[in-house]
Design goal:
By secondary structure, this protein is an alpha+beta fold. It has 7 helices and 12 strands. The strands form 3 sheets. A 7-stranded mixed β-sheet has the order 1-2-3-4-5-6-7, covered by helices on one side. A 3-stranded antiparallel β-sheet has the order 10-12-11, covered by helices on one side. A two-stranded parallel sheet has the order 8-9.
Length: about 220
């Protein structure tokens, strides 16, 4: 628990029984280091992810990129935002949304209308299924770009309009995606299951996510 008495779910909470978790109507979902392989490679593509989920739906999200100082944040009622070079804000502690929003760019940010259809994909977890999916997209969108990236940055790229789609055809856990889903949803994008197109939900008996698609 924390001073707000909202329970926290993270990788360290894997042992918490579902019978206990199912009582949680509100919860923080936290990943203090998303992109462990990218952290080890020292390529800068790792993030800190924090989400607030209410009845299984992420309603607020924060993703911070320590190396670049980029901050993504969202409230599904107010929208999604991005601040470049937010190191000073983070050093002073997290500010109120009303203080952050005037300093931020609203997502999605304007893009070059002539840019090619762009697909994000995992840098360290590529699968044959992903290759086949991208090949199919290139049949529909000749010249489509594939851009690999680590951690939840892939979701953020779709949220900000830099990319059109991010297919995740491999395993992830709830703390990998909750903050990104809140940001993507608040930006007008969708985060849906690959199999039936329904939104990802959280605090399930099994904390492993199904395959999913993030798309504008």
């Amino acid at each position: 628990m924390n001073e707000l008495e909202i329970p926290i779910l993270s990788e360290e909470g894997l042992s918490i029984p579902f019978e206990e978790r199912r009582q949680w109507q509100r919860m923080w979902i936290v990943d203090p280091l998303d992109g462990t392989k990218e952290f080890i490679k020292r390529n800068g593509e790792f993030t800190v992810n924090i989400a607030l989920a209410e009845r299984g739906v992420p309603t607020m999200g924060v993703i911070y990129v320590p190396v670049t100082g980029t901050l993504y944040f969202a409230d599904t009622r107010l929208g999604a935002f991005k601040i470049d070079n937010a190191q000073g804000i983070m050093a002073d502690g997290m500010a109120e949304l009303t203080q952050l929003i005037p300093k931020a760019a609203r997502l999605p940010v304007p893009q070059n209308q002539g840019r090619p259809f762009t697909v994000m994909g995992s840098r360290s977890h590529a699968t044959p299924e992903l290759k086949a999916y991208v090949d199919a997209i290139r049949e529909e969108h000749p010249g489509a770009l594939f851009i690999p990236a680590g951690s939840s940055l892939k979701i953020c790229r779709v949220a900000e309009g830099f990319a059109d789609i991010y297919p995740r055809l491999g395993p992830t856990m709830e703390w990998d995606t909750a903050a990104g889903q809140a940001i993507a949803t608040a930006s007008g994008a969708k985060v849906v299951r690959h199999d039936d197109g329904s939104p990802l939900t959280y605090n399930k008996p099994e904390l492993l996510n199904p395959w999913f698609i993030v798309k504008r």
